[in-house]
Amino acid sequence: MSIPRERIRNFCIIAHIDHGKSTLADRLLEYTNTISERKMQDQVLDKMDLEKERGITIKAKAVRMIYKADDGKEYLLNLIDTPGHVDFNYEVSRSLAACEGALLIVDASQGIEAQTLANTYLALEHNLEIIPIINKIDLPSAEPDEAKREVEEIIGLDAEKAIMTSAKTGQGIKEVLEAIVQRVPAPEGFNELPLRALIFDSLYDPYKGAVAFVRVIDGHIRPRQMIKMMSTDKIFEVAEIGVFNPDMQPVQYLQAGEVGYVAASIKNVIDTRVGDTITDAENPAKEPLPGYKKAVPMVFCGMYPAEGEEYESLKEALGKLQLSDASLFFEPETSAALGFGFRCGFLGLLHMDVVQERLEREYNLNIITTAPSVIFKVKKTDGSKIEVDNPTNFPDPAEIEYIEEPYVEASIMLPTEYMGAVMDLCQEKRGTMKDMEYINEKRVILRYDMPLSEIIYDLFDQLKSRTRGYASLDYELTGYKKSDMVKLDILLNGEIVDALSFIVHRDKAYGRARQITEKLKEVIPRHLFEVPIQAAIGGKIIARETVKALRKNVLAKCYGGDISRKKKLLEKQKEGKKRMRKIGNVELPQEAFMAVLKME
Amino acid sequence: MKTIGLYIHIPFCIKKCHYCDFNSFTTLELIPEYLAALKKEILSLKKYGYTAQTIFIGGGTPTILRCEHLADILRALYESIFIAKDAEITIEANPGTLTREKLISLKNLGVNRLSIGLQAYQNQLLKIMGRIHTVEDFEKNFETARNVGFDNINIDLIFGLPNQEVEDFDETLKKVLHIFPEHISCYSLSVEEDTEFYRRQQEGTLALPSEDDEREMYYRAIELLTNKGYNHYEISNFAMPGRESKHNMIYWTYQEYLGLGAGAHSFLDNKRFYNYSSIQAYIKSINEHSNAVANIEPISVEEQQAEFCFLGLRLLDGLDKKAFQKRFGKKFTQVYGRAIEKLKEQELIKENTNKIRLTSRGLDFANIVFAEFLP
Predict the structure, then answer these.
(1) Is the ipTM of this complex over 0.85?
(2) pLDDT tens across B174-233, in order?
(3) Is A419 buried (19+), middle (13-18) or exposed (0-12) by CB count in 10 A?
(4) Do A571 and B374 touch (CB under 8 A)?
(5) Nearest CA in chain A to B274
(6) How far apart are CA A368 and CA A351, in angstroms?
(7) Cα separations (Å) of B67 from B101, B102, B108?
């Protein structure tokens, strides 16, 4: 490596979804000839299809650029991409810890959003040099001065030196690169000290195994070196190290200040945990780098193959996903209604959606998920304490002394005109307002103490619909509080369908029970007999609907020309029946299981 | 030499009815060209030496054709195939198209059965259906037909019509019984795609009777007609003893039939094939290749068994287990034992030594029964 540490710049980009992070990153790569325009498949940083469609970056990636600055010298710039969603807060903090600077992108027509703000605060905590960038100034609706004012007023940054860009047209890209060189400090660190490398991401490569993406803080790392993961004390021999060019390119060593990857025939990403410190096995560092936390799933749900015979494929697919996603948890479970499946744990709802979509898209599986649940802490009358994330394990009410549920501090940033609607919503969601902060006369941040279970239910969707998409949400777990939770069961034809049960606050139980029974009435086909749908807490029925018995199902006519056509009709009917889940003598379509997931 | 049922399709109507999704068109200017092609198709049968047990001229409205056209078709038929001595020869007719002259001519041409689409005995309901005739037209035509000597007449009725009440259908049944046709078909309306009714349904302006009322109409028909001595022999069909439609029985007992004309379906040698349904495509193909077969579908044994069963079960007499065994060389219970037990448990069918038949409950849910027989 011919570029000395003084000319290394490690930085990341903080931006709200759709504010142009990926496009700006693409322009930087093009400008530095890291990748040719032709080779660039629009937005190199967002690799998965899914990410492209959702316009978000789910997992961090890194890329290395060589930039010849105006001072005539070559600089090595490492861009570390960060995930942009609340579910991945911890990952973001680790990516930030690998950097000395951050580009803060603000959409000139949208202004700052809650997520951006949260990540900016996180960056300030890590003492990062923040370079404000006002992007999309080519848009007719752009109000760059307003955006600048927000940067100053909301974040308290000097927006004097904010850079005006249009990632779309390429305007301001050079200025961004120059600002990185001039304003982001070079990494500190000592080659002489024992190795300490921060893992900020990892991936699973079929040939190399689990690959850790690292920022070397102290010391250096080479192939064949014996390294130790400080959180687990596991020791591996380095097989290959390299840099992102943007594809992986092997190098002979990485030293303090550098960003790259480490492959050491590690079988599972469980052993390349984000936030962990890699050290030299023979000359280990005394202390790991601060901030390591084991990824803890916060949201759980059951995942079942729609077709029973796909169980093994689902198991295999989850296993494969887990190779590259250490925060995905799963273990086998059985449901009377759905048969064999898995209890899965996720960082949050988005993470859950992403996993489900990847299972369906990349592994061609048809999945039924049960209602997501948080972890409740139950103190039983016998003095024992248990954790419940599955309604099936909810104890008998008589055995419960009290229940605690996880709470978060939710920060919602929104235009003031929607304040009333959002405050109503938060109240409905059992939130208590802690703080209200006017950013300017048009925008406000509301901070609520709120149960996590309400957020995972439908807060995102509700917020979006009640503010026409103008509100943004960020939340952070604050702890557990006592709550009056009950288990709501759904009975079909008198039988409890375990896969439809969920844990809910007593005050919400009636409303949810009514909604679900109504929804089920719509989706359950009529049978030869009447099908009662009941919602119950314990033995007490709190809502009831009835699917009336079918009156007829008969083709009046069937003559010569009709036979093929009518047979197709019968086949369709039979096919539809096959796809149903049989619960007792009631046939349940897949939509029935969705009924408990979300309400319109 | 093969014995078959023969179907001739006349795909023309003056106006399309609001419930109709049959292969019929109002392009009457194509009639001469079409008939020429049809005649060609009929004449091409000569080489096969078929014997027709039944002939059914359906549509469309075959009786909108002029006498000489009808004569042309029938003469071509007699020239091309053998007709069994006691053959049933039916023509479909709509009220208003049957003049005395036409009826006499049909009679002289050997047609011995009429199937008249009355549908309802209320002019206001006929209007809703988009029918172009009145009850009075029907009465006149029916009387003329009787006078001319037609002693085997079917009347088609539809129930479950928009705005129809149980009392309306009751009245229809009673009035029809009063004139005493040999055969009555009572069809439950099904709203099919690509019809005016379907469009109205999508739009939310089709006022169909409740399901309870619709079933009540069906039960009324069964009660009134069987009380009067009609044999309820198929889900939707009633006949005085011995006047069951021989042609339709061929379909339901899974015998072979040949269909001629646009869109007509045939079933021969365990293959189903059908002609192009567009009139132009049919004419073109006949003129260029002397046939108009659009597609041939071989039917697997499993499918044959299923069709045999669900067609046979349409008959109230039921499906003959021995006939099944004779045809397929397999014991019926061996193939369908489990389905039968399940359906019996649901009280949809009953079984005796020779036959399986729908229960009266099964008549309402026949599709559920039929679907069990599919491979």
Answers:
(1) yes
(2) 999 999 999 999 999 999 999 999 999 999 999 999 999 999 999 999 999 999 999 999
(3) middle
(4) yes
(5) A561
(6) 16
(7) 8, 6, 11
Q: Which candidate in B365, B369, B373 is best for mutational testing of the A interface (most A CBs within 10 A)?
A: B365
Which residues of chain A neighbour B306 with C-beta distances below 8 Å?
Answer: 567
* CA distances for A379 relative to A395, A486, B28, angstroms: 10, 14, 84
pLDDT surpasses 80 at B302: yes
Model confidence, pTM: 0.73
Could you tell me the CA-to-CA distances from B109 to A316, A426, B182 in Å, in that order? 74, 84, 21
| Helix, coil or strand: residue A81 | coil
**Mean pLDDT for each 10-residue chunk of chain A (600 residues)?**
86 82 84 68 50 41 89 94 70 90 91 79 87 92 89 83 89 95 94 94 86 94 96 95 87 93 90 93 94 84 89 92 83 91 89 87 89 94 94 92 95 89 94 89 88 87 81 85 95 92 93 93 93 94 95 88 87 85 86 72
Q: What CA–CA distance (Å, rounded) separates A19 from A98?
A: 23
From the list B23, B346, B364, the residue facing A554 with the nearest CB is B364
CA distance A364 to chain B (A): 26
DSSP state of B75: H
CA A253 from centroid of its chain's CA atoms: 33
Q: Please report, as a single letter, which amino acid is at residue A589.
A: P
Q: Is B332 in contact with B354 (CB distance < 8 Å)?
A: no
**Contact criterion met (CB below 8 Å) for B142 and B114:** no
Across the interface, whether the CB atoms of B188 and A556 are under 8 A apart is answered: yes
Task: Give the pairing of strands B82-93 and B113-119.
Answer: parallel
Is A574 buried (19+), middle (13-18) or exposed (0-12) by CB count in 10 A?
Answer: middle
Flag if A570 and B371 touch (Cβ within 8 Å). yes
- Closest residue in B to A574 (Cα) is B371
Amino acid present at A189: G
* Residues of chain A contacting residue B187, judged by C-beta atoms under 8 Å apart: 556-557
**Distance from C-alpha of B278 to C-alpha of B264, rounded to nearest angstrom:** 11
Task: Return all residues near A94 (Cβ < 8 A) that are at least 6 apart.
Answer: A198, A199, A200, A201, A274, A275, A291
Interchain CB contacts (distance < 8 Å): A and B = 88
